[in-house]
Amino acid sequence: MASITEDQRLDAVFTALSDPTRRDIVARLSAGEATVKELAERYEMSMQAVSQHIGVLERSGLVSRGRHRQTRPCRLEPAALAVAVSWIEQSRRTWAARMDRLETRLADLQQGAGR
Amino acid sequence: MASITEDQRLDAVFTALSDPTRRDIVARLSAGEATVKELAERYEMSMQAVSQHIGVLERSGLVSRGRHRQTRPCRLEPAALAVAVSWIEQSRRTWAARMDRLETRLADLQQGAGR
DNA sequence: CCCTTACTCAAGCATCTGCTTTATCAAGCG
DNA sequence: CGCTTGATAAAGCAGATGCTTGAGTAAGGG
């Protein structure tokens, strides 16, 4: 079994979001499905290039591809976005907690010096 | 003036977070400052390699470097993390709003069919 | 003063990215 | 059936990335 680690999932999501075209594709898909051709026209880019961007987004779990006639409509999978947010929030909580402790200690020190 | 666009800032932040070593550096720094040498020992990596990772994090605004004796203590700048979260939340809000509208329309259709 | 410590700069190198071009495939149309 | 449309596959290429080695610099210590 080649199960994916949490680190690899985060790698894939942040790598996918590090390109402005792919971020715009995510923003576009948050408003509804789109085909490869529609996206290619939007970015004045070849369908092959878009298809490869979709591949990156698909491997990260951010986007999935369906089938409808000859088209492969792409839709957003917001669960993968939640993975990225929760990782960031974890760091921010730790940092905020440390700041709180520092302030408490500073207040203690000032009170001690004031006596 | 070569002012940085919002897109370039997001590029830099997501690119910085796309590497597992750099994510771990961010997590480590959220618990307090660290020197290049300390990080190099932690990851069993050369100081040069760590210094380059710090450079990527610094250019993204996620980390800043100070000076203390011979060391260059690194500290987290959480404001840059907020930029990434707010971008993601924007997409999620749009998606959530679309889902609400779809549900409303579905409910309307069912009510219409029930009469 | 030399020597060590902590770190950065610069060049080199293997690998990865983003895009291109060419070729191929699957679905529908006349 | 052939032809068009929407999309993927494969190969190639310029540029970026992650790490290395070698050289250099700033701050202390003996």
From TrEMBL, chains A, B:
Residues 2-95 form the HTH arsR-type domain. InterPro entries: ArsR-like_HTH, HTH_ArsR_DNA-bd_dom, WH-like_DNA-bd_sf, WH_DNA-bd_sf. PROSITE patterns: HTH_ARSR_2 (PS50987). CDD domains: HTH_ARSR (cd00090). It comes from the Bacteria. NCBIfam families: HTH_metalloreg. This is Transcriptional regulator. The lineage of its organism: Bacteria, Bacillati, Actinomycetota, Actinomycetes, Micromonosporales.
